[in-house]
Amino acid sequence: xxxxxxxxxxxxxxxxxTKTKAFCSCSIQFGNEPxxxxxxxxxxxxxxxxxxxxxxxTLAVRAGLSLDCTIRETSRFARKxxxxxxxxxxxxxxxxxxxxxxxxxxxxxxxxxxxAYTRRVNIQRAHMEEDAGKNLHDRGxxxxxxxxxxxxxxxEIVTHPDLRSAAEAxxxxxxxxxxxxxxxxxxxxxxxxxxxCDANVSIRPVGTEKFGTRVxxxxxxxxxxxxxxIIAEAKRQEECLRTGERIVQETRGWNDVAGTTYPLRSKExxxxxxxxxxxxxxxxxxxxxxxxxxxxxxxxxxxxxxARYMASFGITPYAAGVLTGHPKVAAFFEExxxxxxxxxxxxxxxxxxxxxxVRTKGLEAEIPVSPAQVVEVLSLVDGGTISGKQAKEVYAAxxxxxxAAKAVVAELGLEQMSDEGAIEVIVVKIxxxxxxxxxxxxxxxxxxxxxxVGQTMKETGGSANPAMVNAVIKRVLGLx
Length: 480
Known about the structure:
Blueprint: E1 4-15, H1 54-66, E2 70-71, E3 74-75, E4 78-81, E5 91-94, E6 101-110, E7 117-130, E8 134-139, E9 142-146, E10 153-159, H2 166-182, E11 195-205, E12 215-220, H3 223-243, E13 250-255, E14 260-266, E15 276-277, E16 284-285, H4 288-297, H5 302-313, H6 317-323, H7 327-338, H8 343-354, E17 359-361, E18 364-366, H9 371-382, H10 388-398, H11 405-412, H12 420-433, H13 435-442, H14 449-459, H15 466-477
Parallel strand pairs: 12-13
Antiparallel strand pairs: 1-10, 1-11, 2-6, 3-16, 4-5, 4-15, 6-7, 7-10, 8-9, 11-12, 13-14, 17-18
Helix pairs in contact: 2-3, 5-6, 7-8, 7-9, 9-10, 10-11, 12-14, 12-15, 14-15
């Protein structure tokens, strides 16, 4: 877009990692039979009263602090009134003018080299609310409503319209998800709907300050889809303006197959929801002492962790990014280093061997070996007992067991050949069989060194110590 620029604000609904719902004791376990996790409260039956889940409050405070928000000492719940089949009460318990968290920031680092820039995204508010149920439309001509999700504790994080491209929006979502996952607030599971995004998109002529008419793109559960939907919507709005068509403020969906957005309903404003204070819940009070206790318990944020890895361990930005892709992987790496492993070697081994076998689900991860096993493998390589290639075989044999690396080496007969005399006999034999290549190497054709190393390793079944092989070849050929 050259004539117009996009103006984007995001609203993220992040499910808080409680065991029960926001205002009742029903389970929030995903995937159970429809309508088996309900009670009079989350079904909205007359006379049923809400009771606030205190753990949800604790997690909301952690989320706010992770985003540098101010935490209100006193916040209030409100009723947001609207009719929808998956909202049994006819209203949603949310927060309106007095949210628990407000005025936060999140910095994005975009581009590389000469095109690198920083975008500061201001977070207007992060308020607590309950989730609605879910309409299911895959029953032939019938639709049903599943209220298992109804009443689940959420925090809605709302930005100011500070984003200027679809790429920035996608990066914001990735960064926000990482922060919430590392803080233990949200499991980041887009597929199960525990991290969902609405995007408010408008366009305006480049260089102007006045905002255009905004359109809301609803419930997009993929970073890639968010980016594609924003690009498509901005192009649609530009085409409207070029042809003189009026842009209507509305809510639209995203059709990934067609690559277009489509209208859902007219966009409601705050007054349409008839917000008023929730009469069945008292004001929510979070003391300064509780806020400071939550602040003290917060772990290192992903970006800070990456910076520390690069500064303290000397690993590359790419490696630091991979290792901080999940809290359990980062903890595994740090335990390896704390147990004596070289940080770069541990990083390389985890990336090359371990990660393809790691299975993550939410905050949990199945890792097939222990840090102690990895440290032992690396120490055997450093000590010359096995080669780097043999380390891969040892790992494969240890995977899913508690076997010690030394025991696996003994079982497989993988101990590296470090008998210099035996290696010399093999090298002499190879040199005698390849006199032309030997003379070329003596004459300065150094690329042939690899040929002799490869032949020696082949002759020893890959068990010879590579450093010793190199030294012996040089000695036999009289090379410096």
